[in-house]
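agent> Task received from the user: take the single chain below, predict its 3D structure, and emit structure tokens. No templates, no multimer pairing.
agent> Plan: (1) validate residues, (2) run structure prediction, (3) serialize to tokens, (4) report one or two observations.
agent> Step 1 OK, no nonstandard residues flagged.
tool_call: predict_structure(input=
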Amino acid sequence: MGLVQLKGGRGGIRVVLGPDADPNRVGGEIVTALQSAAQFLGQTKITVEVTGDAISPALASAVAAAFTNFPKLSLAGIGVGKPPAPARRTEHEPKVLRQTIRSGQEAMHTGDLVVLGDVHVGGRVVATGDVIVVGALRGFAWAGAEGDETAIIYAQPLHPTQVRIGGVIAQGGDAPDGASAEYAHIEAGRIVVEPWTAAPRQGAMRSRVRR
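)
tool_result: status=success, residues=211
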């Protein structure tokens, strides 16, 4: 199949991404596909379906950015096109919030949580799966809230007051302005932050958060 296909059916309109979808290219391909059908779609919700077993934060970010070009279309969700092996991500669909989480606000979800906006100081985002912030994370984030220590926290950039993954807690530290996309994960029993790359675990490790 091609990189991006637009499909319709009883479940509504879907944008289907091929198994080799490259986050650096997929945004432009989605824009092209939607532009060709925009006059027929009107104001509707669209689901993005990824052919494969997982959705990377970089791919979710590229998809979200593509939809900002179409104010009449809303991103209803991002999911995998075939059931992966039994794991936490098969139990609940990801939740996508098109908003900024301000001080005093909290967003919670059973499953992966995607925030298309910033999380301000005093704001809280909590998920039993991954936390993906397509914007700056400056507040509190807790991924794997039911004990999953394989979960990650992704943001662009990641400047939290505090993060938790499973039962591990880390405090935020000083960070330079203008940092790019980063993610926090557990390694050797502690939370570390690294730049997000195509092979993130091979990137240069940074220790801005500490237990």
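agent> Step 4: summary for the user.
The CA atoms of residues 157 and 179 lie 5 Å apart.
agent> Done.
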